[in-house]
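User: If only I could read backbone structure tokens as easily as an amino acid sequence. Underneath my words sits a plain record pairing an amino acid chain with its backbone structure tokens. This is the protein in question:
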Amino acid sequence: MDIILASQSPRRRELLERMGLAGFRVVSPDVDEHMEEDLPPAQLVCRLSQRKARAVREQVGDEGLIIAADTVVALDGAVLGKPADELAAFKMLSTLSGVRHQVYTGLTVLRGGEEHTEYEVTDVSFRELTQGEIEDYIRTGEPMDKAGAYGIQGYGALFISGIQGDYYNVMGLPVCRLGQLLETLGVHCMHLAAQRR
């Protein structure tokens, strides 16, 4: 089966491979990811993941299975996107210091005429951060292409005092939920992984 990941994210590629889905194609969706600020985070990520999946379907046709995802960080219901510059990154990280926030990922899977969209939410707690720590982190460059200005799989892990929910969701792909969704479509990840041993 032709499996297509509608994302250029190296983290999502890595997670699909970990799920046993080797040999998938990557097709970058040509979509406007402008956030509709009046939408709640869960609805926003679902809508953006649908937009990505449908855009890729227009590029490649109805053959195969398309997986698309979109992830945002939210604090008190307000969405924090990717920082536009270092000052924006500093403000975001200062706001997240010492508080719990949420990470939402919308997930859309298309196969033929079928479309399934779901979302996952994970609570993440930051310890109190000093100004120097935030400045050093920004100097690493890691925050600049990340929702909420941090990456849990990188240096940002040093700031995280707790997590409740799917760790991989914070990386940008809720692996457990995706695996269950694929199962309903006849794609059995554990079986695929076992066959490669």
Residues 114 and 131 are 49 Å apart (CA to CA).
